[in-house]
Amino acid sequence: MSKSLNVILCASGHLSSGSGEAEFQALYDRKIKPMILALDKFPRINMVFHYSGVLLYWIERRHPELFMLLEDLLSRKQAEFLGSGFYDPLLPLLPLTDKIGQIEMLSTYLRKHFGKRPQGCWLSGMAWEQHLVGPLTSCGMSYTFLEDQQFSAAGAKPGKAGIFSPCNTEDQGKLITVFPLAAGIARKLQEGNPGNILNDLLKKSPENDNGRIVVLPIADLDMEYEIFFEKLSNADPMLEFTLPVKIHKNLRGLEKLFFPGKWPRQFIAEHPEAGGIYAKMIYVHTLINNQLRGDKTRKRTAREELWKAQDSGIFRLGTASSPGLLHSAVRKAAYRALLEGEKITRERKKFPPSLAVFDFDLDREKEYLLLDEKVNCYVKPLGAGIFELDYLPAAWNYLDTMAPRDAEQAPQGIMKRCAFVDWLAPAKTLPDDLTPNGIKGGRFCGLEEYELSDPDRVNQRLKFRLPAKPGFLLEEIEIEKTFLLKKNILVIEYLLKNCGQKSERFVFCPMLDLSFGGEGEEFLRILAAKEEEKIQLAYNKDVVFEKTKLLEFQDIKNESVISLESSRGFEGRIFNIYSGNEYQSTCLMPLLTISLEGGKSLKVTFSLKISS
Questions:
Q1: Cβ count near 262 (within 10 Å)
Q2: Are the C-beta atoms of 10 and 217 separated by less than 8 Å?
Q3: Is the predicted pLDDT of residue 1 greater than 60, yes or no?
Q4: Which residue in 9, 405, 432, 566 has the fewest CB atoms around it within 10 Å?
């Protein structure tokens, strides 16, 4: 029996695709470079690393000198690299082929640059489901890591020193070893003398046949690494700083545990913006499998685009130093990759306009996808609103929006901001009465179910109807709403009908959001038609505009123009939408004052054109 304590120090790092150069450089300067330089000075200290393929690729291009130092640490067996998905996905989320493909992509990268495939796997977010055992072992992974809380949830009992022992877990006859991460003990290391803390742990830990093992994740600790490693080097000689690859094969008689799933699936339900990206992932995955059969080269290229979008950052809100869902650039990068993958499935043949009907967002309700050569328009019956508007030449989703997170900012509840969601309001409503979240005292139809007529697949036409509803504001008003996508121009026809006997005067507002690369004139210019010319609106965070029939949004980043034209003049207001302090989208609220006698109707048409 061993009297030593095997200490495994581990560090992980990742930044989502879409993070800026400054974020990558800050992570490198603050964490990665100081840790590796310090490690090189203390040969007694061993460390195991997991850096995502995104981060390693950035280091390779910006700081190749660090790769030379890592190669030296690996060659003298002072360091070990762990595998995982190349783009740091939450593995339970992915279809099987994507799980294996992403893991193999990072393993191949590590073998190519450092000469050896990894034998262990890091799980982003410690996301676990038992079926992961098979894919991990099929990719050559012999061990992985889970948090000590997950060990507790599996029924494991810690030893006297509060340390869990490694175990085996199994699925469908496949076995993998799981090491426990002692994050709580790791945090204590920066609160006091790390050598003394580990020496005390050595005294308390009971001996066993496999030796005593503690795995300490230190990447998130705020410390001077050189001082930290020096203190560890001077610790008790019975503390052995080792690597899992050195001790795994000698582990015997491990307990078998089955771990409950840990992956924040509820996050998708609570954040429809993440749910939309997840649904698009599944959609593009299906397109690739169905449309690219037999074409291995294009299929591989399309899959790599899909994998870029499977970033774990999409499924957490994120922070300033580690951007996530709240950060527009992260979502934009995901949609860009998904749309590039979709475009590959359309190559080598003329794409015919079409109307697809199926459950896109996986809620057991059908959605309606109007598809043209350059534009995708996705419509849902709830509110008969557009929830995705893709301009394929720029690989840009203009409805990649983000709702504010609190009830005060989002009185309708946290729902995805869409386009052409309708408001009915009293006739006295003015532009000054508008807010980024609608019209105070108005009726929001975006949460009302519109009835669908039989979709016209031949002409790519969708017609919805919101019947008159007794007990509601403007209860006698019926809205009929038709979508038509033809030659990459989206036309929305409204037929407003007064089903009552007395005249009604009211305001109608088809509210829409559009998401651009940022705020300010370097990203967006807005022009309004006035007589025979276009006048640029003085626009910063919000602007009230006078009656016009045409607004033009000049998207500077994508070098494209969105023109919104109406058959009837409208006035209104334009707002910037923020979540936290970050720009998310631009909200347009056009106001049309309508007078209808009993039994009469009025037609209003909007056309939305996106061009380069």
A1: 17
A2: yes
A3: no
A4: 432
Question: Contact 81/121 with Cβ under 8 angstroms?
Answer: no
- The answer to whether the beta carbons of residues 560 and 394 sit under 8 Å apart is yes
- Which domains, from first to last, does the chain contain? 5-14+22-256 (3.20.110.20), 350-611 (2.70.98.10)
Whether the model pTM is above 0.85: yes
Pair 213, 252: CB distance under 8 Å: no
Mean pLDDT of the chain: 93
Q: State residue 591's pLDDT score.
A: 96
For 110, 420, 608, the CA distances from 567, given in Å and listed in that order, are 59, 15, 12
Query: Is the Cβ–Cβ distance between 328 and 583 less than 8 Å?
Result: yes
pLDDT-derived band at 207 (thresholds 50, 70, 90) equals low
Closest CA to 130 of 79, 186, 170: 170
Count of helices and strands (H, E) across the chain: 15, 30
Give the list of residues 6+ apart from residue 485 with CB closer than 8 angstroms, or none.
353, 370, 371, 372, 375, 377, 460, 491
Q: What is the DSSP string of 151-182?
A: HHHTT----TTSPPPPEEEEETTEEEEEEEE-
Question: What does the DSSP 8-state code read for residue 207?
Answer: P
> CA-CA-CA-CA torsion for 506, 507, 508, 510, nearest 10 degrees?
-160
- Indicate if the pLDDT at residue 488 is higher than 70: yes
The pLDDT score that the predictor gives to residue 415 is: 81
- Coil, strand, or helix at residue 479? strand
Q: Is 8 helix (H, G, I), strand (E, B) or coil?
A: strand
Block residue for tokens 């045409």 = 550
Q: Measure the CA–CA gap between 125 and 315, rounded to whole angstroms.
A: 10
The burial of 222, by beta-carbon neighbours within 10 Å (0-12 exposed, 13-18 middle, 19 or more buried), is given as: exposed
Distance of CA 380 to the CA centre of its chain: 21
- List beta partners, residue 425: 507
Residue 215: strand pairing partners: 8, 181
Distances (CA, A) of 257 to 159, 176, 179, 307: 16, 11, 12, 31
Please determine, for residue 142, whether its predicted confidence score (pLDDT) is greater than 70: yes
Q: Which residues pair with 560 in a beta bridge?
A: 555
User: Which positions ≥6 away from 122 have C-beta within 8 Å?
Assistant: 12, 50, 82, 83, 84, 144, 145
In order of 113, 126, 201, 229, 253, the CA distances from 275 in angstroms are 36, 20, 44, 43, 43
Spatial separation of the C-alpha atoms in residues 20 and 323, rounded to whole Å: 9
Q: List the structure tokens of 562.
A: 């969105």
How far apart (Å, rounded) are the C-alpha atoms in residues 46 and 337? 37
Q: Residue type at 202?
A: L
SS3 424: strand
* C-alpha torsion angle, residues 567, 572, 578, 582 (rounded to 10): 80
Which tokens in the block code for residue 198? 């580990």
Rounded to 5 degrees, φ, ψ at 391 are -110, 100
